[in-house]
Write a structure and sequence with these properties.
With about 400 residues, this protein is of the alpha/beta class. About 45% of the residues lie in helices and about 15% in strands. The chain contains 15 helices and 14 strands. The strands form four sheets. It has a seven-stranded mixed β-sheet with strand order 4-10-9-8-7-5-6, sandwiched between helices. It has a three-stranded antiparallel β-sheet with strand order 11-14-13, with helices on one face. α4 runs parallel beside α12 and α7 packs parallel to α8. It is globular. It starts with 5 loop residues before the first helix and ends with a helix.
Length: about 400
Amino acid sequence: MSLAKMDPVLRKHVDELAAKGTAKGKEMVITRIIPAQGQKGPRFLIDGHGDKEFIKMNANSYLGLSLRPDMIEAEEKAARAYGVGPGAVRFISGTHTPHIELERRLAQFHGREAAMIFSSAYVTSMGVIFPLTTAETVLVSDELNHNCIIQAMRLSRPAGKFIYKHNDMKDLEAKLQESIGHGNRALVITDGIFSMRGDNAPLDELVEICKRYEDKFEEGVVTIIDDSHGVGAFGPTGRGTEEYTNTRGDIIIGTLGKAFGVNGGYVVASLAVIRYLRETAPMYIYSNPITVAEAAAALQALNILESPEGQKILAHLRAMTQKFDQGLRDLGYETIPGDHPVVPLMVRDTQKTADLVRYLTENGVLATGLNFPVVPRGDEEIRFQVSGQHTEYDIDCVLDVLRKYKEAH
């Protein structure tokens, strides 16, 4: 038994990815964070770049909470009280008081009966969709849904799978119509915010369409919204795409690892759904929960978000997002309209995307280049992500780098 025969095959596969420009490559390592000072937000030092400071425009920490002293204090206090790890899965002895309190607060925050925490948002989507998919279930999904939804659908064994064109509600209705008779339950699944583009699902229209087909399925049409990029960063009070579209889905999947600045995922729904998932979701049953310290930090994030200070952070985030978006347009760059702090710069060419990412890095800006197969061919882009920690000075610095690139090309 050895890897002698398989290793060359794996090396060849990775080399081919690199040759096509689709390999992830060596990971960037952050060696130090310089706290915000003066008109500057935080700056980051990267392994291999010495003392060169970087503005981070590729983080999911939309509210900029992870470096706050009160967040760190909450986590450290819980770690001292409960230790650094839960020590077991939830149904044995891994459940602690902060886990229960966080679930109660998340349910309250979303106006639902119950909530449950998973180890990550990716795992949450799999841990919700897979157990709810029976042999008599049809799955109806947006074509640009996140990879976690795609993998959950592959793992499941539904009666049928139907993919509708991105945010095309006429096509959604056509797919629902087509799915009638294939199963007794329909799960309509969508991202709230599409993380590669920053646009949102039209949940108000989607929910109304699903209601019209409710009586066509014995067990109804259930809407599942993965709003990991929306919760905490979108809507007047940060309650995500539901709040932004003034509507309500059936099951909401969220994350603690983006706007809340911590780690872990969660789902909110009816008590019946949550009780069922606790008994049937293998991703929950057989995995340790997030640490007690992480749960305590997430509770503190909720405290901040629901306070007047949280409203100020959201207002600043919206202002910086609008400033950056307008700045791109003023420079003649193409972007996708939207109010979310994911702001895409559409390049529509793999090599040009790589060139621009390289230029940004050389000039102290961290941003994400997205190429096929992460995005469809022709949709190659640079994804910028605005944070509540970014200052006007930071945004101006990034726009100035993009201006210089534009003038040179």
